[in-house]
Write a structure and sequence with these properties.
The chain is of the alpha+beta class. Helices cover 52% and strands 24% of the residues. It has helices at residues 2-38, 81-90, and strands spanning 44-46, 52-58, 62-67, 70-75.
């Protein structure tokens, strides 16, 4: 019983860290993966670096976006879920 009481603060600390840090991060990563999978040609997007464009072509891990200055090839993971959602909300 005394051993359990010694480790109880560590166990509680782990539980708190899990629910306030690890679990929300896993949920966010799952949403981002779903967002990347749901992309389609013609979607207006914003990259994490701030480039605006429209998806011209899709590949398994890359995309080609059409911008005002031409076409650019990028990784799908470079697309910002939040900024793209805000852009499409305005339009």
């Amino acid at each position: 019983m005394a051993q359990i009481q010694q480790f109880l603060p560590f166990i509680l600390m782990f539980v708190v860290i899990y629910f306030f840090m690890i679990r929300p991060q896993q949920k966010r990563m799952k949403l981002e993966k779903q967002f990347e999978a749901d992309l389609k040609v013609g979607d207006k997007i914003v990259t994490k670096s701030g480039l605006h464009g429209k998806i011209a072509e899709l590949a398994e891990t890359t995309i080609i976006i059409e911008t005002m200055s031409g076409k650019l090839k990028m990784e799908r993971s470079a697309i910002s879920m939040e900024m793209s959602a805000a852009l499409n909300k305005k339009a």
